[in-house]
Amino acid sequence: MRSDVGHRIGRWQALCRGQHIVTPTVGVDLTALTLGPGVSPCQPVSVACQGGVSGPAQTRRMTADLVIEAEGLVKTFGKTRALQGVDLAVPRGTVLGVLGPNGAGKTTAVRILSTLLAPDGGTARISGFDVVRDAERVRQSIGLTGQYASVDEDLTGRQNLELFGTLLELGRAGARRRAAELLDWFDLTDAANRQAKTYSGGMRRRLDLAASLVGSPDVIFLDEPTTGLDPAKREDMWDVVRSLVNNGSTVLLTTQYLEEADALADAITVIDHGRVIAHDTPEGLKRVVGGQTLEVRPSDPAQLPRTAEILTQVGSGAQADEIRKGVLAVPVTDDAALTESVARFATAGIAVTELSLHLPSLDEVFFTLTGRTASEDDTTTRPTEVAA
Ligand SMILES: Nc1ncnc2c1ncn2[C@@H]1O[C@H](COP(=O)(O)OP(=O)(O)OP(=O)(O)O)[C@@H](O)[C@H]1O
Ligand SMILES: [Mg+2]
User: Fold this and answer.
1) 100 lines ligand 1 (CB under 6 A)
2) Which of 106, 181, 233, 290 could staple 254 via S-S, CB 3.0–4.6 A?
3) Is 136 helix (H, G, I), strand (E, B) or coil?
4) DSSP 8-state secondary structure symbol assigned to residue 195
5) pTM score, two decimals?
6) CATH numeric code, 292-358
């Protein structure tokens, strides 16, 4: 395979200078992007940019230590109100999980915050820089992994990363070093010299994330970063996100996997129909729903009926159910139900191998807040339309 990386860089740079749309061979269709005032269409090349900030001092307004701030973001596409006044706030060195069903407005919010799209109303700042007025400065500090992969499929994994490094002016050796580091980090070293088009979906996703990190950005937007990854790779990706944050990065992550938000996010903003309907810590959100569940597995499955009777007595009145094979669960309103059930099992001579008290899952929280499960994609998830 022959790929002329130098030629590609030259072409991309020429296109950037000429303000033409750059459309990578694969991935985000840049022609579909609506660009804000003063926003270069070449930003997917520069969006992961980091490094020296030059030029005249820009207006910079930062609230406390909020790295990502948005107030009243509004965006309308024709008759569709994608965002209807969204506020977001992410303190330095933390992860904000943005949850919402299909069409809730998550990607639209990320595109505005990463300068790919101009808002119709409201304001947003990244590290104190306005995403519209100071778009260039914003792009210098962010990394963006979109919902759809944006790597060049004709290049190998390594060439893709080295190309980004070269565009970010890391120098030849620096670009090589960074590419090797990221390939290792994302478990792609063995596939490094294969064209990206031969990669599996999960490998492409990892390469896309690696590409957004070439410039070691301070602020990272991850729009559904683990969609399509198998569970093991998803957990690897969670480790990557955790180590980014440990190294001081601030992350805004959209996801439909509630366990992902639970595992990674310091705070969660739930969006529905373009509006924020809840914002809290994962624990706080679970407490909003209220109640806990007591789960018990008797050692002897023959004891299930008797165990269920006891659980029903100590619970909040509902019948105990078998939620997994051999495991009974009952809703309880009080932590004391745990100790009371232990005493009753002892008196009844029932040995148990599992006994635990759970807060509601985020799935339950989501259902309570929106009346739908996170993965549900029915007509009720359509955003509000502007009245004709
Ligand atoms: N460029 C566009 N033109 C027209 N409508 C758009 C455009 N981009 C987004 N929309 C609409 O705006 C609404 C919000 O879309 P958005 O992509 O932000 O949702 P999302 O929360 O990211 O959904 P998903 O979970 O499916 O990724 C949707 O109804 C979508 O169809
Ligand atoms: Mg989306």
Assistant:
1) yes
2) 106
3) helix
4) B
5) 0.71
6) 3.30.70.2030
